[in-house]
Amino acid sequence: MKCRPFTAFAALLIAFAAPVAHAKAKTAPALAAPAPKRIISLSPGVTEMLFALGLGGKVVGDTMYCDYPEAAKKITKIGDVRPNYEKIVSLKPDLIVVDEVAEKSAVLRLRQLRQPVFVVHPDSFAAVERSLIVIGDATGRAAQAKAVVAGMESKRRQAASFAKNRPGTHPKVFFVATLRPLWTAGRGTFVDDVVAIAGGENVAHGVQGYAEYSKELLFSNPPSVIFADDQDLSAIRADPALRQLPAVRTGRVAGDGGEMIQRPGPRLADAALYIARVLYGDRR
């Protein structure tokens, strides 16, 4: 999947009377809602977006997995993969930003509870940029959002330049989402997209979304580079089967850049640069 150039989305009105808004939809401009003062994030990527827009001081709740930036660790936790809806309601939020890719069921439940839900769908690099823009529009941080997106675009171009200076080379990449069982990210995911931006070829592009992946399939189209959670690196190198892969034998097994690759937020641009440097080295 190629990253499409960023196109600005129209501003979205947060309809508190029937409180659900979708960042994928375009709506005509309407009366501006007051800038939210009490925001809840239901995913680490969204939390990173909010902090990047200068909204960290307004975030009153996030998840147990929201650990970047450092200040996110100190925010009241509203659950892990299972949101504590009673806790969410008790915090009296005026905006709850939900990543629909990861938290589709939460959207339905929060809507039933008449909570002010704002939905984003960051399933690609460009979709992360769009999410930043619509969140910025909804929170009075439009200028900050444009600046963050401009920075992401600069890094995206820099990452893409590694491959452009080495025409004809597209190293095969495999991303380990979980090791036991072995799951990976296929087409239609932001991981697949960022690998392509960095000039790599995702060997799992043939599968849709996040899926279990057999070792037999992996050996039938072996990657030259493997990316995995930092905690899985030693286990991959010690696995009797996986250590026979060329990438493992040659030491081309890399970490996930401090979870940058796994989070659809502003640092996805840094992830693209990180992947490009692993694939092609720092010399261009």
Automatic annotation (TrEMBL):
PANTHER family: MOLYBDATE-BINDING PROTEIN MOLA (PTHR30535:SF34), VITAMIN B12-BINDING PROTEIN (PTHR30535). This is ABC transporter substrate-binding protein. Gene3D superfamilies: Nitrogenase molybdenum iron protein domain. The keyword RNA-binding does not apply. Keywords: Signal. Transmembrane segments: none annotated. GO terms for biological process: cellular response to iron ion. Belongs to the bacterial solute-binding protein 8 family. The keyword Glycoprotein does not apply.
